Amino acid sequence: EEKVVLAAASVESFLDEKVAEAESGAKTAEASAKTAEEGAKKEGVEVVDATVGVAAAAAASVTGTMVVEFDAGNNGGIKMVSFKTRQVGLALVLSGGGCCASGKPKVAVKTVDKKGQAETLGVLKSWKVVSINGTPVTGLDQAQKLLADCAAKLPQA
Predict the structure, then answer these.
(1) What does each C-alpha distance from 29 to 10, 16, 53, 86, 128 come to in angstroms?
(2) In the prediction, which pLDDT does 60 show?
(3) pTM score, two decimals?
(4) Which of the listed residues 52, 66, 96, 125 has the most CB atoms within 10 Å of its CB?
(5) What is the predicted pLDDT for the residue at 141?
(6) How do beta strands 90-95 and 106-112 pair?
(7) Rounded Cα gap, residues 68 and 79, in angstroms
(8) Exposure of 54 in the CB half-sphere (CA atoms within 13 A)
(9) Residue 145 to residue 114: CA distance in whole angstroms
(10) Is 126 within 8 Å of 111 (Cβ atoms)?
(11) Nearest 5°: phi and psi at 49?
């Protein structure tokens, strides 16, 4: 019994150390992103918020999940959703950007599988995909590849 208690304490200590390392790495990356953002602003370059991506990447790394950041629209705000298994349960589409739309097209959720992981996690059709594991989504092909690559690293259901 004493050996089990010692082993459990050792595992807990190890996990605490790994979480602290991940948090430290995330803080360092966040500081670097802020410095780069400040430099870019001085040069007149438009910058997206890099700290959110760093936080999502760190969260995915620590938890062993795939973190997808969605824009749920005017009333919904930004949603961070953590997928835990490969069967994500959604399909993507390029949305907007037509003759009457303002701005460039965005990658959006086309369908959500009934009783799938995305539906269970509250993802809704037409939400815009902002980032996947901290990587900003720039187009449909890139988003689909990123989604497939990151999901492939997750366990089966």
Answers:
(1) 29, 20, 10, 27, 26
(2) 66
(3) 0.64
(4) 66
(5) 97
(6) antiparallel
(7) 8
(8) 17
(9) 23
(10) no
(11) -70, 100
Which three-class secondary structure string do you get for the chain?
CHHHHHHHHHHHHHHHHHHHHHHHHHHHHHHHHHHHHHHHHHCCCCCCCHHHHHHHHHHHHHHCCEEEEEECCCCCCEEEEEECCCCCCEEEEEECCCCCCCCCCEEEEEEECCCCHHHHCCCCCCCEEEEECCEECCCHHHHHHHHHHHHHCCCCC
The candidate with the shortest Cα–Cα distance to 113, out of 104, 123, 103, is 123
Cβ-contact 90, 118 below 8 angstroms: yes
Radius of gyration of the chain from Cα atoms? 19
Q: Which amino acid is at 134?
A: G
User: How high is the mean pLDDT in each 10-residue block of the chain (157 residues)?
Assistant: 72 68 63 61 52 64 85 90 95 81 84 96 96 94 96 91
